[in-house]
Amino acid sequence: MLRILLIIGAGGFLGSVARFLVARYVQQSVLSPFPYGTFWVNIVGCFLIGLFYGLSDRGGFMSDELRLFLTVGFCGGFTTFSTFANENLTFLRDGAFFYFALYTSLSVFLGLAAVYLGNLATKLF
């Protein structure tokens, strides 16, 4: 069990660092109150988790440890619901209802679509 926890923790560490770097780079690349950094990290993370689970469903392609490292660890650390929720609360407090609705609806719709497309991509190989 300790081995599995360390594997997940290592993936989470790498995912969290990658999230910080990618989100920061994206957000600094655009001047907008819209949280593009968190948005794109979450959509890419959704695609990746769909891809990783799709690959693991193919059987024999990845070990259980690698699946846990990539999905629970890396993708769990890479994506962030808490930041998403906090950014939405900020929009509501500021009266930015358009950005709130846009961010929430696009995140949910595109997140689901990205998981589906990631999973679908594994079936096309």
From TrEMBL:
The chain crosses the membrane at residues 39-56, 68-85, 97-117. GO terms for cellular component: plasma membrane. One of its GO terms (molecular function) is fluoride channel activity. It catalyses: fluoride(in) = fluoride(out). Na(+) binds at residues 76, 79. It holds the Pfam family CRCB. Its main location: membrane. Na(+) is not transported, but it plays an essential structural role and its presence is essential for fluoride channel function. Keywords: Cell inner membrane, Cell membrane, Ion channel, Ion transport, Membrane, Metal-binding, Sodium, Transmembrane, Transmembrane helix, Transport. The keyword Cell membrane applies. GO terms for biological process: cellular detoxification of fluoride. It is a multi-pass membrane protein. InterPro entries: FluC (IPR003691). It is found in: Cell membrane. Fluoride-specific ion channel. Important for reducing fluoride concentration in the cell, thus reducing its toxicity. Belongs to the fluoride channel Fluc/FEX (TC 1.A.43) family. This is Fluoride-specific ion channel FluC. The gene is fluC.
